[in-house]
Amino acid sequence: MGLVLSALHFGLPLLYYTWALKTWYPRDWGVSKNAHLPKITVVVPTYNEARRIWQKLENLYSQKYPRNLVDILLVDSASVDGTVEIAERWSSQRRDAKLTIIKERHRLGKISALNNALTKATGDIVVITDADATWAEDALLKTATYFADTTVGAVTCIKKPAGDLHHVESHYRKFYNAVRVAESKAFATPIFHGELAAFRRDILERIGGFPPDVGADDSYAAVRIASMGYRAIAADDIVCIEEVPHGSAYHTWRIRRAQHLIQSFSKGLRHLRAMDKRFKPIFLANAYLHLANPWLLAAGAAALSAATICGSAAAAALIVAGTLLALYRPYRTWAVMQIYLMAASVRNIWDRQLIWKKTK
Ligand code: GDD
Ligand code: MN
User: Fold this and answer.
1) Which of 193, 316, 336, 338 is 20 to 30 A away from residue 100, measured at CA?
2) Which ligand is nearest to the Cα of residue 210, counting in written order?
3) What is the pTM of this model?
4) Is 158 helix (H, G, I), strand (E, B) or coil?
5) Which atom of ligand 1 is nearest to the CA of 113?
6) Segment 232-276, tens digit of pLDDT
7) Which ligand is nearest to the CA of 241?
């Protein structure tokens, strides 16, 4: 019993990932790219980002994209650390940048702020980006080229962790990026990134913006858009650097993000019936991997422990083998991920983390 559960837990994802990387990853994108340059609204939601906002705006300013085609909407939810003042000072020094600052009087969370900004966005493409994300200088240009294809509804970046590579994080990222790209080449990926999440504004408006009960605003919008039959893609030539928290903040951060993704997959299940056929298998595989599969590992371990207590030497040997495997990094990374996902499901029961404390 324990062995069967564990075999399923490891076997099913292995099957999916192998399939994705062998069959989908080598494919061509199947999108017609060209140098068409749409008007873009970049939305930066901020809450207490004084430490990073100057650099963030500079990063946007240095993008290789015609300045007259980009406007920046900074939507701040009553920061108390002087974020807005810094942004205003930046604006007075960079007069040729089109920056609009929306000052919310109360903090109602990132999603509410995004919906607020959406009512003021005028670009054909809306790009949402976290204040702690840094873009490669051609990120916006590359993003735009994918939208030249009218079948593409949403585009996201791949992520590189910043600086001193956190071990679990860097290892997990490489593999994770490749899977996102593979799914994107097949049709669409259900996992988007707040570092750079770009959408056609008209489609975003058609789905009614971002729902207030899903923390992963970016991923959920991608799920909706792909369900409607548009490509939602993570492109490997669009690179973002994300700041990764250190120490215990790392775990809190991971769990919150897992909570948000779980919310997105759970809610996405409601669209299953009308979901585009090309997207359905990709969505279902990922929904399974995030919502159900981690529990098979826990159940398998529990069954093996019970068998050990009842005197099964084989079960005991399997537990020892499983524990020793933790010395092998990819396995350890995987196991830790499963724990985050389970912790996240449980925490979602009482606290959905839709408004969260800033991680240091
Ligand atoms: N306006 C506004 N109001 N912005 C906010 C608020 C708020 O209440 N809370 C957070 N933000 C801003 C932050 O200032 C930052 O620019 C961005 O939203 C992301 O916040 P982080 O605190 O850096 O979040 P994260 O890195 O843990 O999570 C990101 O990724 C998740 C999963 O990919 C966010 O984009 C999450 O929304 C997302 O679920
Ligand atoms: Mn962040």
Assistant:
1) 193
2) 1
3) 0.96
4) strand
5) 1
6) 999 999 999 988 888 889 999 999 999 999 999 999 999 999 999
7) 2
